[in-house]
Prior knowledge:
- The chain has one domain (2-87): 3-Layer(aba) Sandwich (Rossmann fold), CATH 3.40.50.360.
- It has helices spanning 11-22, 50-61, 78-87; strands at residues 2-3, 67-68.
- It is mainly alpha-helical.
Amino acid sequence: MIVGSLRKDSINRKVAKALAELAPAVLKLSIVDIGQLPIYNQDGDENPPAAWTEFRKRIKAADAILFVTPEHNRSVPAALKNAIDIGSRP
């Protein structure tokens, strides 16, 4: 799961944790943190920061991704957009 709210006590994070606790045993839900990701810059693709590499590795290993996120100005939060940019690159 990716939580779009960075606040550690956000309602979205609480919902994600509740989902993980309530999920059947065959469904392993874990939160992939995006709060520590550096801002995406295409110049970093040749030598990506370790945080980008780890994030990409976790996303590629997942069978599915569940986004638990607030709506900001009729869109997703900037931190989530950043994570999507990082995750969509090689």
